[in-house]
């Protein structure tokens, strides 16, 4: 059925009636001249060919819109190939990803609505295919963009062609007394206009027909018959400003009896999508229930044209796709752009809305979203870990490609697998470009972690030897690299290389830098007659010289902090922080022993204790020590204690730092690590 209908979507010229309806819908959406021209040229292939490529090159905006419509045809074909429509969300994402100029979307919506209006003359397979595409792809997309003008009619027509019996049954219930319903709405509008005018409120009052598909969905959701729905009869009140909204609400409630459980204030508490309006239900004339919506003209314009999209609460999506939301937000902005400013928004698309996801297809046409820069190997690990481990090659769009080939949205990927799981260690090296996803790299790393230490050691040694031979460092001492990467031994360094924690090229670079430093010319010698400057003391004690001075272990002050000295018995001057509890106790007992102290020349490192509380997770200690090393500090000691039944661990680290500023910066970065609940200086 869908295959039969797919041929009706593209190819043949649109009849004049369909083209006219398309242009009329675009005009209601405020489309610009380029959008209208692209809709006409796509509907009339003969005219497009007559104009030729030269004319299109002179109008790149129109050419981009035509290309977008051709790209959308790929999505229609994928939808036609599906039997159950289970991947509709993926196809919607793919459509927004491959259509670079998003002004294509209103063209697609308007044309499909025009074709649905004329679908009654088509054979049933084509008619149902058009309706199914509208239900699965286009109506939800219009809903997400908040384009109410097109969304409700797409839903109704799709419902009418896919479920004609149910549609007719609900229509008969609504139309049983159609004249009475119309008379009733006119009576309500007249009474409400008079009541608002009597209170000095300038307002527009209009009836809002409830479309059939929405009624059916609400009956299904609430599991109630049609007679228990309060909003089958509805009017909308439009006023100038927010105070007038609440004044109008008071008039409505004074005129008719409100139903207490049927009031929502979306002005004081807007929905997360910024939808704003007052909704109330009342017992109207003749004892019939009536819904009244009250909003400003600006709120109504936003709701109708799409700035306030309803999709989050109406479709009940659990989680949002940030990339998709950015493109939809840009689409809403484009729909609202004043004439002449659309081009500027298009130029901003590449810089402000660069996609961070790509949408690719499995051989069966299912859509998978991957991070930007993803490769066929990322695709394999996304499908299943075992598929990634056994991956030996890949086809993209039926062509053999290398495993570091960068995928683009719309690519169809097929993975070639072997019988045995054999990941390669060079997949872990970022420079090789095999894996763009951290999740995929972690799966490869875990596979190698399960190997025994001897195999990892051998593999790491082979990788390192190959790199050092290339650099001419085959017999170099690894001590500089061990120190840089904080490896306790050569063997530990090689295991780190095997697991991908350190790349062999990083080790080679560290050895080359050390070698260059050793070969650098010595600094110019100081003239023999000039005596070297005297070594400055770490501390200066006011009025006292040649006195032993040491840092107090109780508070461990660092350069840059305020300090004070205390003259001890037999151990010289002990340097404290002024707020140290031990110093305060000693100085209160013997204040005459307090001495002013200042920092002298900073030399070497200073020890400080740090206390952390964190969730006891995998790789926690590795992340902590890597960060400390990156900040140029050193770990002198680590002690840990796990909390029973809480999943937390308490860590106490003794660090060697340059000064107080370095420690302060390090504490902030430690506290920002995933799983770390607190990081503070311990005293």
Beta-strand content estimate: 15-25%
Distance between the termini: 76 Å
**Arrangement of strands in the largest sheet:** 1-2-5-4-3
Which class of secondary structure composition applies to the elements?
alpha+beta
- Spatial extent as radius of gyration: 36 Å
Q: Which term fits the overall shape?
A: extended
The major pleated sheet works out as: 5 strands, mixed
Mean pLDDT: 77
- The percent of residues in helical segments reads 40-55%
Give a nutshell description of this structure.
The protein has 683 residues and is an alpha+beta fold. It contains 27 helices and 20 strands.
Task: Give an overview of the whole structure.
There is one protein chain. The chain has 683 residues and is α+β, with helices and mostly antiparallel strands. It has six domains: 2-161, Orthogonal Bundle (Hypothetical protein af1432), CATH 1.10.3210; 174-309, Beta Polymerase, domain 2 (2-Layer Sandwich); 357-448, Ubiquitin-like (UB roll) (Roll); 451-518, no CATH class; 539-599, no CATH class; 606-681, 2-Layer Sandwich (Alpha-Beta Plaits), CATH 3.30.70.260. It is built from 27 helices and 20 strands. The strands form six sheets. A five-stranded mixed β-sheet has the order 1-2-5-4-3. A four-stranded mixed β-sheet has the order 12-14-13-15, covered by helices on one side. Strands 18-19-17-20 form a four-stranded antiparallel β-sheet, with helices on one face. Helix 5 (60-81) runs antiparallel to helix 6 (88-98). The longest helix has 22 residues, at 60-81. The radius of gyration is 36 Å and the shape is extended. The model is unreliable at 1-9, 307-320, 334-354 and 525-537 (pLDDT under 50).
């Amino acid at each position: 059925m869908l295959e039969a209908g797919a041929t009706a979507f593209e190819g043949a010229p649109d009849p004049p009636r369909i083209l006219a309806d398309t242009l009329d819908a675009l005009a209601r959406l405020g489309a610009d001249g380029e959008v209208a021209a692209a809709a006409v040229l796509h509907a009339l292939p003969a005219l497009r060919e007559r104009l030729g490529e030269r004319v299109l090159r002179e109008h790149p905006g129109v050419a981009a819109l035509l290309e977008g419509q051709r790209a959308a045809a790929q999505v229609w074909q994928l939808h036609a190939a599906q039997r159950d429509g289970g991947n509709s969300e993926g196809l919607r994402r793919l459509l927004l990803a491959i259509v670079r100029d998003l002004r294509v979307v209103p063209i697609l919506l308007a044309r499909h609505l025009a074709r649905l209006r004329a679908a009654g003359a088509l054979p049933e397979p084509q008619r149902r295919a058009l309706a199914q595409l509208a239900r699965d792809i286009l109506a939800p997309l219009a809903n997400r963009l908040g384009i109410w003008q097109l969304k409700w009619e797409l839903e109704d027509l799709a419902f009418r062609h896919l479920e004609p019996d149910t549609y007719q049954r609900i229509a008969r219930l609504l139309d049983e007394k159609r004249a009475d319903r119309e008379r009733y709405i006119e009576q309500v509008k007249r009474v409400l206009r008079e009541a608002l005018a009597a209170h000095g409120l300038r307002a527009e009052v209009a009836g809002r027909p409830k479309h059939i598909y929405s009624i059916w969905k609400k009956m299904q959701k609430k599991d109630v018959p049609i007679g228990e729905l309060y909003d089958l009869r509805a009017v909308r009140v439009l006023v100038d400003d927010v105070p007038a909204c609440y004044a109008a609400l008071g008039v409505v409630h004074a005129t008719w009896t409100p139903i207490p459980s049927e009031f929502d204030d979306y002005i004081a508490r807007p929905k997360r999508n910024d939808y704003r309006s007052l909704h109330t239900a009342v017992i109207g004339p003749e004892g019939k229930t009536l819904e009244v919506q009250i909003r400003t003209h600006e709120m109504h314009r936003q709701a109708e044209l799409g700035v306030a999209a309803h999709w989050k609460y109406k479709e009940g999506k659990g989680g949002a796709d940030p990339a998709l939301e950015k493109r939809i937000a840009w689409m809403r902005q484009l729909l609202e752009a004043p004439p002449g400013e659309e081009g500027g928004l298009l130029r901003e698309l590449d810089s402000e809305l660069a996609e961070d996801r790509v949408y690719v297809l499995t051989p069966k046409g299912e859509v998978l979203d991957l991070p930007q820069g993803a490769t066929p190997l990322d695709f394999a690990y996304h499908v299943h870990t075992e598929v990634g481990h056994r991956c030996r090659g890949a086809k993209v769009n039926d062509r053999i490609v290398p495993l570091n080939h960068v995928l683009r949205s719309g690519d169809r990927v097929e993975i070639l697998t072997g019988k045995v799981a054999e990941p390669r260690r060079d997949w872990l090296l970022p420079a090789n470009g095999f894996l763009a996803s951290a999740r995929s790299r972690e799966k490869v790393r875990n596979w190698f972690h399960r190997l025994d230490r001897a195999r990892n050691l051998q593999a790491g040694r082979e990788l390192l030897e190959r790199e050092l031979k290339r650099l001419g460092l085959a017999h170099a001492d690894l001590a500089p690299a061990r120190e840089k990467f904080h490896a306790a031994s050569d063997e530990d360094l090689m295991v780190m290389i095997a697991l991908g924690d350190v790349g062999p090229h990083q080790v080679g670079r560290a050895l080359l830098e050390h070698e260059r430093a050793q070969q650098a010319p010595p600094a110019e010698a100081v003239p023999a007659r000039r005596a070297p400057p005297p070594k400055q003391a770490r501390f200066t004690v006011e009025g006292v010289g040649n006195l032993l001075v040491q840092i107090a272990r109780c508070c461990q002050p660092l350069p840059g902090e305020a300090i004070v000295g205390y003259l001890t018995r037999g151990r010289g001057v002990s340097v404290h922080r002024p707020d140290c509890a031990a110093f305060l106790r000693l100085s209160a007992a013997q204040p005459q022993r307090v001495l002013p102290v200042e920092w002298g020349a900073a030399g070497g490192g200073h020890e400080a204790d740090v206390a952390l509380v964190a969730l006891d997770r995998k790789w926690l200690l590795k992340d902590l020590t890597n960060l400390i090393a990156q900040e140029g500090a050193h770990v002198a000691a680590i002690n840990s204690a796990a909390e029973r039944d809480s999943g937390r661990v308490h860590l106490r680290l003794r660090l060697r730092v340059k000064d107080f500023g370095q420690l302060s910066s390090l504490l902030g970065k430690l506290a920002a690590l995933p799983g770390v609940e607190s990081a503070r200086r311990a005293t």
